[in-house]
Amino acid sequence: MIFILSKVLLFLIKPFFWFCLLLILSLLVKNKKFKHNFLIAAVVILLFFSNGFIIGKAYNLYEPVYPQTIKNYDIAIVLGGFSGLNKRNNEIQFNWVSDRLFQAVSLYKKGKIKKILITSGSAALLDNEVKEADLVQKFLHNICIPDTDVIIENQSRNTLENAKFSAKVVEARYPDANVIVVTSAWHVPRAKLIFDRIFKKKPDYLPTNYNGGTAGLSLEEFTPDPGVLASWEILFKEWIGLAADKIRT
Q: Left if phi > 0, otherwise alpha if psi is -120 to 50, otherwise beta: which for 178?
């Protein structure tokens, strides 16, 4: 029930939803003062949350610093959410956070890790028969990574379950393993909170696909960009999730 409710409530944290709501209110209310205030608020929200400079700074403050050196590890735990099923060819299809997997593969090829653990079931409300970890397992096999070096956990639906189910696998089969968790930079603070509490031996973390900017100031950053709205949704989701996980883990 909590899983379903969380999916529904995510709709309410969208800045574009706030903009639309205020715009509709400005059209519906009869009081001229309220009408004017709702319209001004809608414009302010749209301009603020579509500003690339502001969102870049917000991410820079939240995302962890990239590690200067990466040690050798027994297992890299890769958090899912970076792929799905392409129904046109029934093969795996990667999305914009797929750097999680590719960085883990890079570590494996460099000899920095011995095994890759993919933790991801299905986060879909309805069609949850296809498990992401199973798709990734097939992909890794096809690019010639030995099956013996790939570990699959295909039941988890969120970060908390990622940690719980991965911990069971690692502690049962590799109790002394040195572990590094690979996930998006903006997801590391939340993942670290959960994994550090659940794992008996705290893992290290490798942040990938940063959202924070590294370039200097440019005019483009201050030009309203509708795509920036989605970046705020991700950040709000992480902040809310972090607060909730501090309570429940």
A: beta
